[in-house]
Amino acid sequence: MDEIRNNNLPVEETVLTEEERNEIRKGRLEKLRALQETGENPFHRVRYDKTHTSSDIFADYEGLEGQEVVIAGRMVSRRIMGKASFAHLMDGNGKIQFYVKRDDVGEESYAAFKTFDIGDILGIKGFVFKTRTEEISVHAKEVVLLSKSLLPLPEKYHGLRDTDLRYRQRYVDLIANPDVKETFVKRSRIVSGIREFLDGEGFLEVETPILNTIAGGATARPFITHHNALDIDMYMRIAPELYLKRCIVGGFEKVYEMGRQFRNEGMDIKHNPEFTTMELYQAYVDYNAMMDITERLIKHCALKVCNSLQITYQGKDINLDGNWRRLPMAEAVKEYSGVEFTGKTVEEVYAQCQEKGIKMEPGLSWGKAMEFLFDEFVEDNLIQPTFIIDYPVEISPLAKRKPTDPLLTERFEIFINGWEFGNAFSELNDPVDQRERFMAQARERAKGDEEAQMTDDDFVTALEYGMPPTGGFGMGVDRLVMLLTDSASIRDVLLFPTMKPIVKK
After folding, report:
1. 159 neighbors 176 (Cβ within 8 angstroms)
2. Residue 205's CB: how many other CB atoms inside 10 A?
3. Residue 71: enclosing H or E segment and its boundaries?
4. Are residues 310 and 322 in contact, defined by beta-carbon separation less than 8 angstroms?
5. Phi-psi bin for 338: left (phi > 0), alpha (psi -120 to 50), beta?
6. Cβ-count burial of 34 within 10 angstroms (0-12 exposed, 13-18 middle, 19+ buried)?
7. Which one of 171, 253, 487, 490 has the fewest CB atoms closer than 10 angstroms to its CB?
8. Phi/psi at 224 (nearest 5 deg)?
9. For every residue of 82-139, which 3-state class applies, written as one string?
10. What confidence tier does 329 reach under pLDDT thresholds 50, 70, 90?
């Protein structure tokens, strides 16, 4: 079976069973032991000095033609033709063909090369040339085995369709699927683009605790762990917000943090319990300034990765150009459901719903009722970039009230493709109001709401020292990567997503 793969026969005919894989592994181990017995153990080699990558050679063929190069990578295909062979080497930059001839490398070396397996990591020294079919290649003068692959690579047309296997063995997915690797290259460029933009705006990147004694800064269920030395339970952070605002209290005027958050919640195409966010805080500005910076930041990343503000996501055309719509939540609910909230009591809202045949959860407050109708009727319709602004106080415990309407807060969420990408406030800096809202959250928690926020007395103390008017914004980095790489699931943009372990019987 291994020889079939090495001779590059149609891989769609060679779907391997577990028994066949084990046989291949057994054969490769025997080859390894034979090498070790001759003193040629590939795992004893500690370095190999390359001079070029595949992309270097393609980019400067005219300058390198006929010149000696040293490359290294994984052999991913081979065609043996008696006294000569063609093969392809994949390195970190791409794939390049190399040509091995018995008369050039020597009979013993060529015989050894024919025993190498697809997946082995090789070093090649030779000169650059073009074949008769005009393919840029390396004519090998020396071939060195640098690392032995004991397991076969997956079949191109079958193995890579097993998404569960792809996520569990991402290292194999990256080897076999160049598109997957390109997604993570783009992810890295997006992350660096966020930093590039914010550093250019004068923000300071800081680091705050991941282990917290209080799970605060968001409405979410935390992971709980135990600190042995202190003998206390601690929480994996669900958001860095409260610590970043402490930095504003302390005198920093522009701060941000990008890092992992942990929420003990459900998993779907948009949610993973471990995920990446970016949060920023700026003193002396409000949520309007945060809308401006959000729009410019996302546009910056789109241009960096897509070279355009006109993108396509899963077949839908999305226009990131121009000024993004800013729509109050109450107006959005009225536009898509027909229910009027402005100037209405919660009883009047329920009466409208009954008239329209809309089933509402019983006993909701005015603000919770607005949130319910927004989730039911509005969110999925927000395909083009839209700022939903002015959220009810009941669902915004860390946002400042609107001076013109105490039922609402200066808060927005940015929606694209029907998804929420970020959340922002004119930050609440009144310690008395903040304590009252924490107490309201505590009452909800006492009723059984495990996602209600915990009271952070030290944060209230920090506010009592005085925090200037501040704008804050938090964004889900993974969702932005999904959007800009046209990836259908969050697992497609996480190198190692959370998976349930396989229990071997």
Report:
1. yes
2. 14
3. strand 68-81
4. no
5. left
6. exposed
7. 171
8. -115, 135
9. CCEEEEEEEECCEEEEEEEEHHHHCHHHHHHHHHCCCCCEEEEEEEEEECCCCCEEEE
10. very high
The two three-digit tokens of residue 264, written as one number = 């003990």
Give the pLDDT confidence score for residue 160 in this predicted structure. 56
- Label residues 117-130 b or e (16+ Cβ within 10 Å = b): bbbbbbbbbbebbe
pLDDT surpasses 90 at 451:
no
Residues with Cβ within 8 Å of 296's Cβ and at least 6 positions away in sequence, in order, are 197
Per-residue pLDDT tens for 464-489? 999 999 999 999 999 999 999 999 99
Cα–Cα distance, 49 to 71 (Å, whole number): 8
Query: What single DSSP character describes residue 323?
Result: P
Residue 310: strand, helix, or coil: strand
Using CA atoms, how far apart are residues 205 and 199, in angstroms rounded to an integer? 8
Comparing CA positions, the residue from 266, 256, 238 lying closest to residue 293 is: 256
Produce one character per residue of 447-484: b if its CB has 16 or more CB atoms within 10 Å, e if not.
eeeebbbbbbeebeebbeeebeebbbbbbbbbbbbbbb
Look up the pTM and report it.
0.90
Place of tokens 């009723």: 447
Q: What's the number of CA atoms in the CB half-sphere (13 Å) around residue 320? A: 24
Confidence of residue 1 (pLDDT cuts 50, 70, 90): very low
In terms of Cβ atoms closer than 10 Å to its own Cβ (0-12, 13-18, 19+), residue 210 is: middle
* Cα–Cα distance, 326 to 10 (Å, whole number): 55
**84 band by pLDDT with thresholds 50, 70 and 90:** very high
Tell me how far apart the alpha carbons of residues 86 and 7 are, in angstroms, rounded to a whole number: 11
Residue 1: which H helix or E strand, with range?
none
Neighbour tally for 501: CB within 10 Å = 6
Q: Which residues of 413-443 are buried (b: 16+ CB within 10 A; e: fewer)?
A: bbbbbebbbbbbbbbbbebeebbebbeebee
> Residue 159: what pLDDT?
45
Closest CA to 77 of 148, 153, 133: 153
CB contact set of 211 (below 8 Å; sequence gap of 6+): 225, 227, 234, 235, 236, 237
| Average pLDDT score over residue span 224-252 | 97
Place of tokens 């241009």: 303
Rounded (10°) CA dihedral 30, 116, 145, 138: 180
53 close to 93: Cβ distance less than 8 angstroms? yes
Q: Report the chain's mean pLDDT, rounded to a whole number.
A: 93
**Residue in 414, 429, 413 with CA at minimum distance from that of residue 467:** 429
Query: Cα(326)–Cα(210) distance, rounded to whole angstroms?
Result: 34
What burial letters (b/e) apply to 218-235, b meaning 16+ CB within 10 Å? Answer: bbbbbbeeeeeeeeeebb
